[in-house]
Write a structure and sequence with these properties.
Structural class: alpha+beta
Number of helices: 12
Shape: elongated
Helix content: 25-40%
Strand content: 15-25%
Radius of gyration: 23 Å
Strand order of the largest sheet: 4-5-3-2-14-13
Mean pLDDT: 90
Length: 378
Amino acid sequence: MAKHILRRASKFIFVVINVIAALLFIIGCYGYIFNPLRFWFVGILTLGSLYLLLILIIFIVFWFYAKPRLMLISVLAILLCLQPLGNLLSFHFAAKFPIEKSNESIRVMSWNIEHFEILQHKSKPELKEEMLQTINDYDPDVACFQEMVGSDEHKDAINYLPSIAQTLDLPYYFYAYNTKLNFDSKHHFGIIIMSKYPIISEHKLSYAPNDYNSIFQYVDILKGTDTIRVFNCHLQSMKFDKSNMDYLSEPILKEGEDLKKSLGLLSKFKVGFIKRKWQSDRIHEAVAKSPYPVILCGDFNDGPNSYAYHTIGSGLVNTFAKKGSGIGRTFYNISPTLRIDNIFVSPQFSVQNFTRVKKKMSDHFPIISDVKLKTEEP
């Protein structure tokens, strides 16, 4: 009798856990419909969607042997989320990326270059050289870099922009930064768009509090007779310090100090989600006003199905979702599921391919895609 009661109780507990996991998974997958000003915590579920999916798959296997009909809990949750799952996972076969590019296409690179490792220019100068060589190997026509530390004034600066532009054969560039946030006396800290094609107009948009993440940029480039608008953005980061990163690697509550760390992390999550809400709204508004086809690159600091991802990507095509494969992780700290860097394009483009360069040179992997303007039928 006691054994029977224990079995029924265990079954009930597992069903409740499965239902909760299914509901959290659905909310996470559709996180973009929740306004971060009121429901900022949903963003955490969005970042954890793939882990919740794994839990649901484990439950499917468990119920297959224990009570097959209860597999429906997880199966129905997954079926309800098939569309947003397409943002989390790409089911294309991984095709070999062609180093040789077509003259008709535009090769786009987006990369958070983490200052071009300027702090290690003396101890490990080979890091910057490897980064520059990697960019040259893939030979982008348009490159958008975030966390760019550079100088457009001092010829003796470590990252002197005219020299870098010459090295990369990207002669046209627009560097956007806030002078209040200079890296040092010679270098600014900002974002940059570099191009093989002439830049015919350039714009920096800045909003209060006019800090680094509230700035984004766009340029109009001329490829033949086609004008294309290229956006580059870096949305609010979580501003995790080393202690936060260490704690995330081992989030076990042992004492009051750990509780304070957890609350500190939640506070940073909240600030990040709310600030990215405002930033993504402004970027979307600027994109919607473009009279030209758009290429948009950036470090979103947020995952697929987030409010920021969906808002910025509304009406655009994500090149990873179109031609990538697997999870597509772009940030290799904290979690193996973080795809926070993106290249979006207008529907006027066809996406030819996509690749992620899996070399640990900065804390982000560079992403690259060849896109081509569709020809209008007569």
